[in-house]
Amino acid sequence: MTTADVTIIGAGLGGLTLARVLHVHGIPATVYEAEVSPTARAQGGMLDIHDYNGQPALRAAGLLDEFRGLVLAGRQTMRVLDRDGTVLFDQPDDGTGGRPEVQRGELRQLLLDSLPAGTVRWGRKVGGTRSLGQGRHEVSFADGGTVVTGLLVGADGAWSRVRPLLSAATPEYTGMSFVETYLFDADTRHPAARKAVGGGSMLALAPGKGIQAHRERDDTLHTYVALTRPQEWFAAIDFTDTSAARTRIAREFDGWAAELTALITDCDSGPVPRPLNALPHEHRWDRVPGVTLLGDAAHLSAPNGEGANLAMYDGAELGKAIAAHPDDVEAALTEYEAALFPRSAEAAVDGAGLHGLLFGDDAPHGLVSAFTEGPQTS
């Protein structure tokens, strides 16, 4: 059994940002991650890092210049299509937008590289957590090891093993799932789909469903197909049978333009279902000494473009609070949570509004109107 100064569970963007901000202030931390290595799994696709939360977090981490070196030029281009392929909205990337795009995996690696060797302990899957009293907690791992800490931070995502120390809330299915697909070498192998997506992101929407794609590095088209269906509907599809799964998902888009459905039927990887779960919008907890949450562990919501940004911002704000109160952990956590709760609730409500624009009864025209007649919401 060992004792750590700050114990962070989860080496995602939020947990790593916290560890980095603490390091900048000379405060040691240890991050425990279930994955066995940084490359154990794909790290997802493109992220737009916002100038009001994600970028300030990187500034606090002292990594803003390095981040700018990862930005993929032109990827802030945004277009909205009707189901027949008609372009309803097309906004080019002129380089002045406040949401530059980077690859999630490259951003995570930047954060990892900024930490002292040994900060992240890989292959440490948490089995459970328990209070020892007086603000101390024990974390037990699947390999039988334990660690005791005076400050435990759950940065371990939707199904957090730390959250039960603070809250009985669990994520619930939103009623929609994404199905993830990839097309590689799109310029030469999938030119029609490549033209439809354009240079950045593309949204082809209808009430309750949509095809959302983004051009990533190396002419890769990364798509999330959205469908409002119960989980049992997806469970009835054999996703190990790639051809049958593609055909079944594409059937939900019969009559749509071929260049759009090609993002499903021509995918170069097996389609992967991604159920969307969320915590209550007003999720909060009473102050419990020595433990707190950040990112999806604290405020999981349906994808709205804010999740990664909020996790990083949470990590930076918590790190700054700890640095401001190095001898009073409870003062730091109280200050952090007082700002966290309303910030998270506001983001969840805004995300629900965006979801309505994307997939509501007026899709895609409600979203187009929001873009052309008022402040942009995405």
Structural notes for this entry:
With 378 residues, the protein is α/β, with parallel strands linked by helices. The chain contains 13 helices and 18 strands. It has a seven-stranded mixed beta sheet, sandwiched between helices. The chain has a five-stranded parallel beta sheet with strand order 8-3-2-12-18, with helices on one face. Helix 1 packs parallel to helix 4 (104-113). The radius of gyration is 21 Å and the shape is globular. The relative contact order is 0.17. The mean pLDDT is 93.
Bin the helical content: 25-40%
The radius of gyration computed from the alpha-carbon positions, rounded to a whole number of angstroms, is 21 Å
- Terminal CA distance reads 47 Å
Mean pLDDT: 93
Class of secondary structure makeup? alpha/beta
Task: Provide a count of the helices.
Answer: 13
Unreliable spans are none
- Strand arrangement within the widest β-sheet reads 6-5-14-15-16-13-17
What is the molecular shape?
globular
Largest sheet, if any?
A: 7 strands, mixed
Instruction: Kindly state the number of beta strands.
Output: 18
How much of the sequence lies in strands comes to 15-25%
Q: What is the element layout, followed by pairings?
A:
Elements: E1 2-4, E2 7-9, H1 13-24, E3 30-32, E4 46-48, H2 54-60, H3 64-68, E5 78-81, E6 87-91, E7 101-103, H4 104-113, E8 120-121, E9 126-133, E10 136-141, E11 146-149, E12 152-154, E13 172-183, H5 186-189, H6 191-197, E14 201-206, E15 209-215, E16 221-228, H7 231-235, H8 242-251, H9 258-265, E17 272-278, E18 291-293, H10 296-299, H11 307-324, H12 329-359, H13 365-373
Parallel strand pairs: 1-11, 2-3, 2-12, 3-8, 5-14, 12-18
Antiparallel strand pairs: 4-7, 5-6, 9-10, 10-11, 13-16, 13-17, 14-15, 15-16
